[in-house]
Amino acid sequence: xxxxxxAQYTSGLDAxxxxxxTQVRGMMLTLAPDLVESVNDGRWLNGLxxxxxxxxxxxxxxxxxxKKTVFxxxxxxxxxxxxxxxxxxxxxxxxxxxxITFRRFDDLPVHNIADIIERGTPGMIEAISSPGRPG
Length: 135
Fold this sequence. Notes:
135 residues, alpha+beta, 5 helices, 5 strands
């Protein structure tokens, strides 16, 4: 996704959502630059920005309703170590096994999210790219 496409994506969002999606995107591009960024047009999580590897979504971010932002983190879901390390800090925002929902990016425990992205991405890529994985 180039900058023009990203600007078009965020143009209809409220100010908090624009900031949140922009900040999360910056973290993704910095901490996991090899992931493929695209807007999902599938049945599940339609309209969210996906960060994928090997054809599988690892992270997804986008608007949730009129005022909130959602961030899905599959590496968090897939790692007992990351859950143990970060569940308490993320507890106020958790709405699912891999999902946080929030109003303002500044309210998030950013260092916890950064660690999930940095440490979780390589392990998740290894898991989904291994030839013997279930599927």
